[in-house]
Amino acid sequence: MSKEIDIRLLPRQAASLKTIREFLLREKGVKASEMRSLKIIRKSIDARQRTVYVNLRIGYSSDANTEQDNLIPLYYNNVSDKPSVIVVGAGPGGLFAALRLIELGLKPIVIERGKDVHSRRKDLAEITRQQMVDKESNYCFGEGGAGAYSDGKLYTRSKKRGSVERILNIFFQHGANADILYEAHPHIGSDKLPRVIENMRNTIIKCGGEVHFSTKMTDVIIKDNAVCGVETVTADGAEKTFMASAVILATGHSARDVYRMLYSNKVEMEAKGIAVGVRLEHPAELIDRIQYHNKEGRGKYLPSAEYSFVTQIDGRGVYSFCMCPGGCVIPAATDERQIVVNGMSPSGRNMRWSNSGMVVEIHPDDITNYVEKGTDSVLSMMRFQEMVEEQCWQQGNMKQTAPAQRMHDFVNGKLSYDLPASSYAPGLISSPLHFWMPDFISSRLRKGFSRFGQMSRGFLTNEAVVIGIETRTSSPIRILRNADDFSHVRIQGLFPCGEGAGYAGGIVSAAIDGEKCAEAAATSLK
Fold first, then answer.
1. By the 8 A CB rule, do 410 and 467 touch?
2. Angle at 93 (CA atoms; ends 135, 260), nearest 5 degrees
């Protein structure tokens, strides 16, 4: 018979199942015969007080169970001769949609504009070496989407949308570490996630699905308000049409050509709020000392420290976003005349720096005076993104060298005459971000940083660097769909999906949305 127990341990006591077992034997009176099987069900760190504790929920049993017990069973049968559903995009929304289609007995045809997850590596390296951005293969486009090389965080607050446990189980059964099943903030790591994504693709192909790389959708075929298929072009210029009466559109938050194509086809969409700001990078040791209240830092048994800040400044939210402990800042532009920054961490979270997006909430009404007159309101937020990204590129000497400023100098409106060492590989250039960024963003960030410095002593420091600019926090457009069946409000068989459609905010929520869209597509075909 399985039992569970909640315990609270010092980090060294929680370091292994062996020390946890010893604690249960000694302090809780659990017999050895009752713990033939022992596993962690939930784990979180409580660093609110001077003494840091690890909260654990432990499952134990007299049966010799294995790590695989109690996992959600997956049934992927051969679907090569089954009806097809086109899935545009191989990010988390698209991949999980494809896997769910196979479970439902349908054949997914996955179309991905970028390269496979391993071939992308060469193009990412060229951004640093040659300051060149491949428009079809970069940190946003390619197998795995924006999440493949930007950390692999699996924490989400969107638990009412579907089963988070199911998504984590699918990741685990495709090669992710078991700790994602119990960590409070699960994380795969940008070094390990590509292998997991490749295993998912292999499952799709093994079961009779199709995956087409370097194949960009150029149009959606619509007749009598119903989707019939998509038109595509390959990297070598070959045109091909894929036909199906259900299309899942999971193109990600950066596919601006897709938005413009849908707009020209009069597909109903609307502008939505986003958040824009900077990447803030500290030495990881400094964040460890602050968060763990210890001048020695995190010590031997604790992971690199995380933080989370949120406040209201002049009627808009200012908050940390996508915090990457022990990670690095990366160039996430999708075109040459842009600078966009993001963050990532390896699985060990053991790099010298920690970084986070620091962003300001923006509503469509906020940017009226910042875009050209005559810009349709539907495209206004996207156009604003483009304008500030190009402005940042100009400040960076029209390369991928990112404009940056020491944190304290930014808050006080001073130019930084030198910059600290940084993880941002293409390099930094000193620039007065407080001067050229839109004032309704920079002024709120400066006030927000001052407030965060009051909340956390030592956080506001010139040892930290502010790097411009973070714009791709979410989709600037929502493709309108019905709440009950996930289909587009007018076009039958079209299922806008995930972050790019404006209905998700991260890997797990996009994956859940992908599964829901797959289920809706299956229902529509019946």
1. no
2. 45
Using CA atoms, how far apart are residues 391 and 371, in angstroms rounded to an integer? 13
- Three-class HEC string of 49-92: CCCCEEEEEEEEECCCCCCCCCCCCCCCCCCCCCCEEEEECCCH
Contact 127, 340 (CB under 8 A): no
Given a cut of 60, is residue 66 above it in pLDDT?
A: no
Which of 479, 508, 490 shows the shortest CA–CA distance to 88? 479
Q: Which of 466, 314, 491 is nearest to 395 (CA)?
A: 466
Give the burial string for 334-366 (b: 16+ CB within 10 Å, else e): bbeebbbbbbbbbbebebebbbbbbbbbbebeb
C-alpha to C-alpha distance for 383 and 400, rounded to whole angstroms: 20
75 Cβ contact partners less than 8 Å away, ≥ 6 residues apart:
103
Nearest 5°: the CA angle 118, 123, 129 is 130
Find how far residue 231's CA is from the centre of its chain: 28
- Contact of 248 with 106, CB cutoff 8 Å: no
- Proportion of the chain above pLDDT 90, given as a percent: 88
β-partners of residue 360 are 276, 318
The pLDDT of residue 121 is above 60: yes
**Maximal CA-CA distance, the chain:** 75
pTM, two decimals, is: 0.95
- pLDDT in the model for residue 179: 92
User: Taken in order 405, 406, 407, 411, is the CA torsion positive or negative?
Assistant: negative
Element (H, E) at 517: helix 507-525
Phi, psi (rounded to 5 degrees) for 38? -140, 130
Q: Which residue has the tokens 């029209």?
A: 398
Cα 54 to chain centroid, rounded: 26
Q: What is the pLDDT of residues 274-309, one digit of tens each?
A: 999 999 999 999 999 999 999 999 999 999 999 999
Share of the chain above pLDDT 70, in %: 98
